[in-house]
């Protein structure tokens, strides 16, 4: 049966109350990327960076998955083939909705990483400047999220999934950040049918064979319903 690979971005969590980055009022209109989402920013002002992620971590922990997250979890359960979710998001709303095997290419707010030894552990809700590493003891705990200038996680696995995709869907992403924005080209080159589900056209909309415009909580459940009806024949 057909393999479905799905890429999600901040737009799928918008209706759960979590901010996007580049919409009006988005996070990058409130903070400068170079201050809070780069290794240089962390070195310059670790307190600002820890605070930026502590606020987001607390908010994400309190957020509930929405109908779009739940629809993807349902697709994973009921679709007769493999469904792989790759997310740029650092929240855990796919998992809270019941999805499994979610690939977090930009890391997770719930994760802490030691900048000295590379040890990973579950982040405290509020991480301090100089958070001690439970493994090596260095006061070097940082959010386990991928900053600009750092390599996204799990790329080999992701490219393998894209090469095997029969259907590739991008949901709630502006298509402005690479390598994720190029996934549609990888999937199309492998012969996948490509679908974009987004509130408005993205930077890469022209690359998709099919588009559904609207809020994720409307267009994603409708798309899943259509796929499952088709699978039942
Ligand atoms: N339903 C569907 N789509 C929505 C909704 C919604 N309710 N609200 C917003 N969107 C769309 C916007 O139209 C936009 O195209 O979601 C997209 C959000 O784009 P960005 O804010 O750029 O977020 P994203 O694409 O996930 O950013 C990618 O950039 O800053 C880095 O690491 C960060 O993972 C992030 C990456």
UniProtKB/TrEMBL annotation:
Active-site residues per Swiss-Prot or TrEMBL entry: 106 (proton acceptor)
A Pfam family that the UniProt record links to this protein: SIR2
Cofactor details (free text): Binds 1 zinc ion per subunit.
Binding site for NAD(+): 9-28, 88-91, 172-174, 198-200, 216
Domain Deacetylase sirtuin-type, first and last residues per copy: 1-230
SUPFAM superfamilies the record matches: DHS-like NAD/FAD-binding domain
Top EC class of this enzyme: transferase
GO cellular component: cytoplasm
Intracellular or extracellular location(s): Cytoplasm
Keyword Manganese carried by entry: no
Cofactor: Zn(2+)
GO molecular function, a single term: protein-succinyllysine desuccinylase activity
Organism superkingdom: Bacteria
Catalytic activity: N(6)-succinyl-L-lysyl-[protein] + NAD(+) + H2O = 2''-O-succinyl-ADP-D-ribose + nicotinamide + L-lysyl-[protein]; N(6)-acetyl-L-lysyl-[protein] + NAD(+) + H2O = 2''-O-acetyl-ADP-D-ribose + nicotinamide + L-lysyl-[protein]
Positions of substrate binding: 53, 56
EC number, as in UniProt: 2.3.1.286
Positions contributing to Zn(2+) binding: 114, 117, 133, 136
Keyword flag Thylakoid: no
Keywords, in A-Z order: Cytoplasm, Metal-binding, NAD, Transferase, Zinc
Domain comment as written in the entry: 2 residues (Tyr-53 and Arg-56) present in a large hydrophobic pocket are probably involved in substrate specificity. They are important for desuccinylation activity, but dispensable for deacetylation activity.
Family named by the database record: Belongs to the sirtuin family. Class III subfamily.
Function, as annotated: NAD-dependent lysine deacetylase and desuccinylase that specifically removes acetyl and succinyl groups on target proteins. Modulates the activities of several proteins which are inactive in their acylated form.
Protein name in the entry: NAD-dependent protein deacylase
Organism: Jhaorihella thermophila
């Amino acid at each position: 049966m057909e393999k479905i690979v799905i890429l999600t971005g901040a737009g799928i969590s918008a209706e759960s109350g979590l901010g996007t980055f580049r919409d009006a009022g988005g996070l990058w209109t409130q903070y400068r990327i170079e201050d809070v989402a780069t290794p240089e920013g962390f070195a310059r002002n670790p307190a600002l960076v820890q605070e930026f992620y502590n606020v987001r971590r607390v908010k994400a922990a309190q957020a509930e998955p929405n109908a779009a997250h739940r629809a993807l979890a349902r697709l994973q359960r009921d679709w007769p083939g493999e469904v792989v979710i790759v997310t740029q998001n650092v929240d855990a709303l796919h998992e809270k909705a019941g999805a499994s095997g979610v690939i977090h290419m930009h890391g997770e707010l719930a994760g802490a990483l030691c900048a000295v030894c590379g040890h990973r552990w579950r982040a405290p809700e509020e991480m301090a400047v100089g958070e001690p590493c439970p493994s090596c003891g260095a006061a070097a705990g940082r959010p386990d999220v991928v900053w600009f200038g750092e390599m996204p996680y799990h790329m080999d696995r992701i490219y393998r999934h894209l090469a095997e995709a029969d259907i590739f869907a991008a949901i709630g992403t502006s298509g402005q950040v690479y390598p994720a924005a190029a996934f549609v080209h990888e999937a199309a080159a492998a012969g996948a049918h490509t679908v974009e589900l987004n509130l408005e056209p993205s930077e890469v909309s022209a690359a998709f064979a099919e588009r559904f415009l609207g809020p994720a909580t409307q267009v994603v459940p409708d798309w899943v319903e259509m796929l499952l009806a088709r699978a039942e024949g």
